[in-house]
Write a structure and sequence with these properties.
Elements (H helix, E strand, L loop, with lengths): L4 H14 L3 H17 L4 H5 L3 H22 L4 H18 L1 H5 L1 H15 L10 H16 L7 H7 L1
Helix pairs in contact: 2-4, 2-7, 4-5, 5-7
């Protein structure tokens, strides 16, 4: 079973994802993409109009680029996350209220997740594993050592 090709790819992706702020970068990228998709003006109109209209496309594009940079270059995550939140907040003014608030919220949450990510943090154990370990520890402490005699069992209780 260990030789299945899908299992190796999935395990490799999990290792890759564990070494970077994956969800933060993904949400920032999705927020920028959502804002870009809600823009209505065509490229011809933008090139012949003001800088404010151009910034409506420029800021979400920068959001997408910052999200991808977070995914593929996590060592600079603090700079990218601070720049990402500033660009995300700027998109509120320039891009249909930040993609009707959906892209704004996705970008802000993604930037905050990236800023709070710690690279050398121990992986969290699942709730079931913690409960199982607590039950095993409780069972060990309540076991009676029959070789010592009944007086030790009474002293413990």
């Amino acid at each position: 079973m260990a030789g299945l090709p899908g299992q190796g790819v999935r395990a490799g992706f999990r290792r890759w994802r564990a070494n970077r702020p994956f969800w933060g970068g993904l949400l920032l990228t999705l927020g920028g993409a959502e804002i870009l998709l809600t823009e209505k003006a065509s490229l011809d109109v933008i090139l012949h109009s003001s800088a404010r209209t151009l910034s409506g496309y420029l800021l979400p594009t920068v959001m997408v680029l910052l999200g991808l940079l977070i995914l593929f270059n996590p060592t600079q995550r603090l700079f990218y996350s601070i720049t990402g939140i500033l660009v995300t907040l700027g998109s509120w003014l320039t891009s249909n209220l930040g993609g009707f608030f959906v892209g704004l919220i996705l970008g802000a949450v993604g930037s905050c997740l990236t800023f709070g990510w710690l690279p050398d943090q121990e992986p969290r154990r699942e709730r079931r594993q913690r409960k199982r370990a607590a039950r095993a520890e409780a069972a060990k402490s309540s076991e009676v050592d029959l070789t010592k005699g009944p007086e030790i069992a009474e002293a413990r209780s």
